[in-house]
Specification:
The structure is a single chain. This protein is α/β, with parallel strands linked by helices. The chain has a single domain (about 1-135), classed as Nucleotidyltransferase, domain 5 (2-Layer Sandwich), CATH 3.30.420. About 45% of the residues lie in helices and about 25% in strands. It has five helices and five strands. The chain has helices spanning about 35-45, 70-80, 95-105, 110-115, 115-135; strands spanning about 1-5, 10-20, 25-30, 50-55, 85-90. A five-stranded mixed beta sheet has the order 3-2-1-4-5, with helices on both faces. A hairpin with a 6-residue loop joins strand 2 and strand 3 (about 25-30).
Length: about 140
């Protein structure tokens, strides 16, 4: 069974998943946030997901970011939709910065590096990797 991480955004949301053995966190896709719950329902109909990890948007000083109330509402809806699947929260501070660094170091051409959806799904993978480091390894 996999773990799915979600880097929630108001316009688009990055998604990452583990492999079935929960060893590797990989970026999966970016979806328009309006279609997010439908995407997750469809994904879970074909893949077994044992838990969700939703990024917890905090400022560097630890205070909640403006988007926090939207993310909290989403996490509650996700938990209601999948009551047997825990929804964990993971600090997502600096994950977009780390995602941009990963992209820059990967050698991807400049035009592709400007694709914001790439940053979102890699940030979701960073969130998932941090969660796995803290909880599984």
């Amino acid at each position: 069974m996999r773990i799915m991480a979600i880097d929630f955004g108001l316009k688009r949301t990055g998604i990452a998943v583990t492999d079935p053995l929960k060893i590797i966190a990989s970026p999966l896709t970016t979806v328009p946030t309006a279609q997010l719950l439908d995407f997750i329902k469809n994904y879970c109909a074909t893949e077994q997901v044992e838990a969700f990890v939703v990024g917890l948007p905090l400022h560097l000083d630890g205070n909640p970011a403006q988007i926090s109330q939207h993310v909290d509402g989403f996490a509650k809806r996700l938990g209601a939709l999948f009551p047997d699947c825990p929804v964990h929260r993971q600090d997502e501070r600096l994950t977009s910065v780390e995602a941009k660094r990963i992209i820059l170091n990967s050698g991807i051409k400049k035009q592709k590096r400007q694709d914001k959806s790439l940053v979102d799904k890699i940030a979701a993978a960073v969130i998932l990797e941090q969660f796995m480091l803290e909880n599984y390894w």
